[in-house]
Prior knowledge:
By secondary structure, the protein is of the alpha/beta class. It has helices spanning about 20-25, 35-50, 65-75, 90-100, 120-130, 150-155, 180-185, 210-215, 225-235, 245-260, 265-285, 310-320, 345-360, 370-385, and strands spanning about 10, 55-60, 80-85, 105-110, 135-140, 140, 145, 165-170, 185-190, 200-205, 300, 320-325, 325, 335-340.
Amino acid sequence: MPGIIKERLFTPGPTPLLLEAQVQTLTATLHHRTEAFRQLMRESLDNLKYFFNTQNDVLIFTSSGTGAMEGAVTNLLSPGERVLVGTAGKFGERWLDLARVYGLEAVKVEASYGNTLNIEEMKRKLESEGPFRAVFVQATETSTGVSHDVKALGALVRELPDTCLVVDGITGLGTTELLPDEWGLDVVIGGSQKALMIPPGLAFASVSEKAWKLMAKSRLPRYYFDFSKERKNLAKGEASYTPATTLVVSLHGALRYIRQLGRENLISNAALLAEATRAAAQAQGLGLFAKGSPANAVTAICAPEGMDSGAIVKEMRVRFGAIIANGQGTMKGHIFRLAHLGYYDVADLFAVIAALEVVLKKLGHRVELGSGVRAAQEVYLQHHS
Ligand code: PLP
């Protein structure tokens, strides 16, 4: 008899749901062409600006985050145009895939998995191989647990009047300080199943005035993800097509919670959990995959020499109901990832670290029980004296 095992998500999306926001969906029978829904949309759009930390328009789409990434490409560019892509993992590679599919000429700056992008190299490419219509990067590369210096990149791109900086902030938003307006992040993409604490199905894009001007000239085909059409409709509190109404209800509730909590507190929560996780992993004799600039959103941890990270992922699920993420692509089997974005708290962290210690010991890693938990507790106490 295994006893009670509760399933808990420690994955970088979907993330644990905010119960208050979910409960509201049970009683919502909304039609999207009503004043009640328009009111909900208007309030959500206003609070999304707070979440994104911007005065720019924020658009909502019913899709996963990749839909808004694709929309950023098709709305900004014309066939054959040149783009600069900074890639350091599976999601950076998605920008390259999109560029290829839409017949763009992509120049890439690549950092090997676990490393952050070299901004000097991006600068050199911008100067020597331009002009580029757009630069695409991630704020945080979820597949490797690394963050990129989008502030420094923004300072470079804002000097170029015909180039937009597009930042995939899908796991950066709510975990990392981002100042789109001051830093010149022209388009920032978000997704609902991350720090927003609600299910998958909504994608977001903030769009600067500079980006709107360039979009007016772009010629790639687009239909569903037509940013200017969506902007016009959202100004009336409406979506162009039937939106996922229940998700908009959850979004409304979650944004209200985030506003009460404070964006900065949401970010510092993720930062504390990430710092404590890194300390715990090292105390357990595990290596960190990020070689610098570790992300607050997720920590990528190397499996002990000779141990398949899939075995750790499996044991965590079977013994403790803890769903953690394996590595993606060539990282599969070598790393596992613990998330900190959204509705995770310190007690969640202490528990998952304690569970990890048991699993590591069972799988034959020489770890002293309590060593990781103690390291995490010490980090907590340093921040809460
Ligand atoms: N970009 C980043 C940084 C992500 O973490 C993810 C999802 O994990 C995506 C893009 C893709 O988002 P979606 O799966 O919602 O399309």
